[in-house]
């Protein structure tokens, strides 16, 4: 079954931030959030996780960027 489009909210972003700090891979986060992995990659970029350093991701920064 194909996944439906899902817009991330602040609570989702906080969950992503927590998983990033735990060292989870983007694919693992996507599976846990039931979204496509590209959604997570875009979100990580939006939240300031640069050069593959996911621990820099900030839910607050990503929320302000939208």
TrEMBL record:
Q: Which residue ranges run through the membrane?
A: none
Q: Which residues form the Transposase IS30-like HTH domain?
A: 4-47
Native source species: Hominifimenecus microfluidus
Q: InterPro entries per the record?
A: Homeodomain-like_sf (IPR009057), IS30-like_HTH (IPR025246)
The name of this protein is: Helix-turn-helix domain-containing protein
Which classification does the entry list for the species? Answer: Bacteria, Bacillati, Bacillota, Clostridia, Lachnospirales
